[in-house]
Specification:
Length: about 160
């Protein structure tokens, strides 16, 4: 499958994505734990069906030492026993923040309160921004049919 647009060959995409990826880099340096960031990025991408992002975040998480058991269970995290309470709170917030069209109320108070029990304000800021960032990245890739499978870990870091 060929991508509809080549982001690397387009001057317009180059200008826009330079700033977009700078936001992603800032998130990597945030106080939200790196493993939580990868799990959230993976779950948002699974929900949206973004193969390119699933490929990237699975490989980056593996390169950072994440286990295949945990990565394979992200899609069914509610039934899995391998995630911490903090990670579960982040995954719940990520799901509700991604499925805003499915849940008229957006992120519920209970989900927010659970996340706030585990993360401070700076971490919550990073978590919310990460969910929004990943939803945008997923849409960029899905609309233009960016292919999956060829990502090399750390390519965008």
């Amino acid at each position: 499958m060929d991508a509809r647009l080549n982001y690397f060959a387009s001057p317009t995409a180059g200008q826009i994505l330079k700033h977009f990826m700078a936001a992603g880099k800032a998130l990597k340096g945030s106080p939200l734990p790196a493993v939580t960031q990868e799990l959230v990025a993976l779950r948002v991408s699974q929900i949206n069906g973004c193969a390119a992002c699933i490929d990237m975040h699975t490989k980056d998480a593996t390169a950072a030492g994440e286990t295949s058991v945990r990565l394979n269970l992200v899609a069914a995290w509610r039934e899995a026993t391998v995630f911490t309470e903090a990670e579960r709170a982040a995954l719940a917030l990520a799901e509700e923040g991604t499925r805003v069209a499915d849940a008229a109320g957006g992120v519920g108070d209970e989900v927010w309160a659970h996340a706030a029990m585990h993360y401070d304000e700076e971490q919550l800021t990073a978590l919310v921004t990460l969910v929004a960032f990943m939803n945008a990245a997923n849409r960029l890739n899905i609309i233009t049919r960016q292919p999956a499978g060829g990502y090399e870990p750390g390519r965008f870091h």
